[in-house]
Structure formats: C-alpha cells, structure tokens
Amino acid sequence: MGALSLRDLTFRYPGANDAALQGLTLDIPRGGVFGLLGPNGAGKTTLISLIAGQLRGASGDMLLDGAPLAEARRRAPRSLGLVPQEHAFYPMLTCRENLRFFGGVQGLGAARLAERVAAASAFARLEPVLERRAGELSGGLKRRLNFAIGLLTEPQVLLLDEPTVGVDAQSRAFLLERIRALAAPDRIVVYTSHYMEEVQAICDRVAIIDHGRVLLAGPLAEVLQDSARSLALRLSAPLPAALAAQWRARFDLREDGTLRYELRLGAPADLVQALQAAQAAGCEPLSIAYGERDLEQLFMRLTDRSLRD
Amino acid sequence: MLRILTALWTKEWLALSRDVHGLAVLFLMPAAFIVIMSLALSDAFKEGARVTDFAVLGSPKLGERLAGEGFRAVPAPADERHARDELRRGRLGLVVLLPAQYDGTGPVTVLADPALDALQLLAFRERLLGAALGIDLKRATNVSVEVIGSPRPARPSSVQQNVPAWLIFGMFFVVLPISALFIVERRDGTAARLRSQQVAFSLLLVGKIGPFFVINLLQTILMLAAGLTLVPWLGGEALSLPARWDLLAAVAACTSLAAIAWGLLVAVCARTLEQATVIGGVGNILAAALGGIMVPRFVMPATMQAVASLSPMAWALDGFHAVLLRQGSGSDIALPCAKLVALAAVLFAAAVWLQRRRG
User: Strand (E) positions, chain B?
Assistant: First the structure.
C-alpha cells in the first residue's frame, strides 16, 4: 500500500451519464515524482480535485498513511498543496500580495509568512516581479507564481495539475527542474501532464488512466520495459491483407492508416522474421523502432488514438 | 481564524481599492444623484408650491368660491362613496360634503387626504368658514374634518428625501463589486484553490461582509456630508442632522447587512459577470423605483404605496426618515431594522444553501 492509497474510487458529476472515475485504485508512494497521465476527459483533474478536497461525494477510500485522507487533513490542514491548471490567483494584486494572501488564509503567522513568501518566491525566482501585479505578468511568470503559491506551506502532499501548460521552452525547463528538485523521501508529488516527454524526464513512477480507470501503473523503467518488445514500422506500401491478418493474430498488429504499423513481438527472433516477411510482400521498411518504446507510444497504444474532445 | 479573516479582508480591500469602476458606482453615483435630485426637485417638495385639488358635493358655486391660494376646484364625484375612493387613491386632496338642500344651518363635513399637511387643512377650513363665502354658514354648528385613512408621516424636504434615498441606492450597489470578485474567483479557480486549502465557504462569506460593511458605513458618512455641505453650497437646502446618531448608525448597519447579503446571493446565483450585472443592477433599479427612492412614496397612489412597502429599500428609507425626518426613537426604527436584518439572514442562508447544493 502506498503512502497515498486510493481504493475503488467512483465519482459522477451531477447530471452526467458516465462516471468520471469508475472504481479507480492507485497507490502513490512517498519519494520521487509520480506522473499521472491520461487523455482529455480521462479523469485526471477529477482525481486531483478529489484528493485536494475541491470535490466531494466520491465512493471508495482515500487513505494517507493508512488513515482517511479527510481526517489526516483535519489534523494537518497545511499538509497538502495544489498547483491547479488555472492561474488561480488575483490578477489585481501584486505577486507579493497574492503570496501573502494565500499564506495568510492557511493560517501562517506573520514571521512564518514572511519567511515562506521569501522562500517560495526565491524557489520560483519571482523576486524581481514581487511588486508587479499578477495580471500583468507573462505566461511563464504567471505559471511560476501559481507554482510558488502551492509551495507556501511546504506541503507533504503536492499536487501539480498540468503546471507547464502554455509556457515557453525556457520556462518549462525551469519549472521541470524545480519540480524535480521538490522530490524528497518524505514527500508525495503527483504530477499530471499531457506532455509525455516531461513525464518521462522527471517522473519515477507513472500511472496511465482513461475513462476513470487505471490502465497501467508502476515504476517508469518497468512500464517502459513492458513494451520493449514492440516494433514500430513505417512501410513503403500497405501490407497485403493476408500478411496483415497473420500479423494481427500473431503480433497484435495495430495500424493507423498512414502506413505505420505496431507489432508486439514474442521474442527477438520475431523481429528478423517480420522484417523479411514485409520485404517479401513488397513493403520496404522506411523506418524501424524496436527495443525502446517511449511513453507516448505506450500511451497512445493504451488509450487508443481516437480524439476525445 | 483571525489570521484567515485578516487575510481575506486585506484581499478584499486591495481588490476593491483597485476597482475604479466599482468605487465610482459606490461613491460617485449616489453623491451625484443626491446633488442633482436635491437641486432639481427642491421646489417640487415645498408645501407652498403645491396645489391641492378639492371638490364640493352639493354646491358647485361653493367650489368656485373656495378655489384659489393653493386650492383648485375640480368636478365633484358622483356621491360620497366615490369621493372617498378618490381621496384614498390620492386623486383628490379635500372633499366638502354639504347635506342635501343645505340651508346654512347644519354641520359641514370635510373629507381629507391623510397626506395633506395640517396647515393646509387649517387654511382650507378657514376659507370655508371665511366671510368670502357667498352662502350663509354663519349659523353652522361646526365644520368637522375627517381624515380618510391613517395619518401619513410628514413629508420630507427635497434634501431629506434624496440624501437617504440615494444613499440606500448606493449601498445596495455593493452587489456589483461583491459579485464581480466572487465570479472572478470562481472563474479563475481561486475559489477552488481556497477550497483545497480548506477555507470554509461560510468564512469566505464573512470575509466579504467585513470590508463591505465598512464601505457602506463610509458611504453613509460621505453621503450625509454631501447633504450637509455640497447641496447647500450649490444652492439647495442643507440636510438637518439627526438627534440620535446611534439610531442612524443602527439603520445604516441593518441596511448594509441586507445589501451585502443580497450581493452574496447574486454572486452565488450568477455564473457570469454579465448575469451579475443584470440581476444585481436591474434588481436594484426595480427595488429603487418601487421603494420610493426614485419616486417618493407620498406622491404614489395608495395602491402603489402598498406595493412599495414590499421593497427592502422602502424599509431602509422608513428607518432613515424615522431618524432624520421625525427625530424618532428606538421603537420607531425597530420594525424597519427588524425587517432588514431578517431579510439579510434569509438571503445569507439562501446563498450558503445554494453554494452547498452546487458543491
């Protein structure tokens, strides 16, 4: 059981036909960064909102170190920090006023508040813009302010819901480096993103969810290793029907209609055999990927390629 | 708890201090209305300038002779019942009832609109008894006056009407800044973030009540000051000060609670800034039109006056008039204050209930 244990969580928005979460079970340990992946509408934000206490009414259990999460939060209200997708701060206030406000409503005393405002703004490198109104900041700086607010209480559980959306490459790299730096043995860091390369770069463990269920979860290395025997091909011509049927049965063939094919091979020897069969059928391999699957390929395979919204 | 409230109040103050349009609505708009309306209507509120319509049942000639000096004869109603109806509706000020085949010896009854000033009543009675009459009333045993309905309060002067009226109007306009920030908080995810930080919704509401209560009291002070200084400086009549400042503060406080609670309910109900502006702004204008803010209630016909008394702005105006106009006591403001506080409690409870229902 992980430090944060989610058991059979089911949640339906009022008036919705389908449940946003359908018996979701997940264990999130302390230490490292836990990546939560899923297409739009998969249930990531719903899950984050339930853990953060923004949404209520889910069935199932949420446990923190074995105790109900709500009870744990009553005992230590400042133990959880959230960095939401939105720029959740006041545009008419300065960065410092925003930080002071969000620290103040969490009950930080004057000295501690001053100390934490300084620390969080230093961590997010906001010092030069502390006296500027938040609404006047660039997209990257707004993200950094949003991020800094989530760190004010030094939370033991930190939820980051797509914290790099809409920023330039430099800001993204900076934020990722900062998030990685937050990983500590006694801290739970949950990170959701659409950007697979980000997750692959900073997360130690991942879970892929879709339709409110966990499709796959585990250490990143193991998750990628599971798919190490997949072969991605781009061919010069469509596969003949007979060969395609044969591969479908034997290699779980998937195709996307653009002469790209994915096969799950049983053994390394199957690789040579598959390539020879393609060549014999007049389909020259134009590109080949084998042995290393990146997260995006795995994600697309698990969640299907169809558009979600 | 105090730290949280301090943070919430500070945030509201900072946000409001940077909302130029909100400040203009709260302070400039009522001040402008007070000055403009006090000056524009200063003559209309003077008793001497008013002409009272009257009719005589049984002697058209008497009607002609009584006319003049603020009294205008109009065609007489068909009978006494119709005459009473006309008086109740405020269409007539006075009706003289002469007995059939009056020979100048019996009693004469005058039916009077309760809103009529006592001096006017006296003047009319004198005219009736005066030597100018062409019929012989010298042996009349008496002239009795019957006021139709309960006596109404004294009429305010222009500044006495307009200062509290537009002050109340301005106080209720806290609905706009309250709902605007509330909706921005909901739209931008700030409210959700605060929920994740376990800040109770009821505490957030209390965090909004404090600053806007102070704003309403500031409005009261500044609008009274405008009536005391600005209006006379521009040529109007000065506002007379109340004898009991504590009662004035009590009325202002109760009005403020009702206005803020209304603002909170609109903030919870409206999903967009446009909706809040329409619900809050139009709601206020309707309540003002109905409640004697835009049109003084004493010029409304009786039916409209009954409807007007349903408006919370009318309750507030009753309270302010009791203190400013009639120098009343605590018991005089008790009813309007109780109504306003009860309304505030209902609106506040509705806002909390609705928010909880929405999750």
Answer: 52-57, 71-73, 94-97, 108-112, 143-147
In the CATH hierarchy, which top-level class contains the domain A4-224? alpha beta
pLDDT digits (tens, 9 = 90+) for B82-96: 888 887 766 788 888
8 Å CB contact of B190 and A88: yes
pLDDT over 90 (residue A158): yes
Summarize pLDDT for A15-64 with one digit per residue, the tens: 888 888 998 999 999 988 999 988 888 888 899 999 998 888 889 899 99
Residue holding tokens 């200062």? B163
CATH classification of A228-292, choosing from 3.30.70, 2.60.40, 3.40.1350, 1.25.40? 3.30.70
Smallest Cβ distance to B197: which of A14, A91, A105? A105
Answer whether B115's CB lies under 8 Å from B90's CB: yes
Alpha-carbon distance of B108 to A252, in angstroms, equals 112
CB A4 within 8 A of CB A27: yes
Tell whether the model's pLDDT for residue B132 goes beyond 50: no
- Residue (of B311, B195, B220, B203) closest to B264 by Cα position: B203
C-beta of residue B178 within 8 angstroms of C-beta of residue B261: no
Mapping DSSP to helix (H, G, I), strand (E, B) and coil, where does residue B33 land? Answer: helix
Locate all alpha helices (DSSP H) within A186-219, ordered by sequence: 196-202
Query: Are B7 and A100 inside 8 Å of each other by CB?
Result: yes
For chain A, which residues make up each domain, given as ranges? Answer: 4-224, 228-292
Cβ <8 Å between A104 and B198: no
Measure Cα distances from B81 to B125, B219, B303 in Å: 22, 48, 18
* Mutation for B interface: A48, A90, A113, most B CBs within 10 A: A90
Which residues in chain A have their CB less than 8 angstroms from residue B11's CB?
90, 93, 97, 101
Chain B residues with CB-CB distance to A52 below 8 A = 195-196
A304: distance to nearest CA of chain B, Å? 31
pLDDT tens for each residue of B215-250: 999 999 999 898 888 888 888 777 877 778 899 999
- Residue B262 pLDDT class (50, 70, 90 cuts): very high
Residues in CB range of B87: below 8 A, 6 or more apart: B93, B95, B111, B112, B113, B148
Rounded to whole angstroms, the Cα distance separating B28 from B26 reads: 6
Taking residues B9-22, what's their average pLDDT? 89
User: Which distant-in-sequence residues (6+ apart) come within 8 Å of B195 by Cβ?
Assistant: A52, A53, A54, B201
pTM for this one?
0.73
Helix (H, G, I), strand (E, B) or coil at B54: strand
Q: How far apart are CA B222 and CA B23, in angstroms?
A: 13
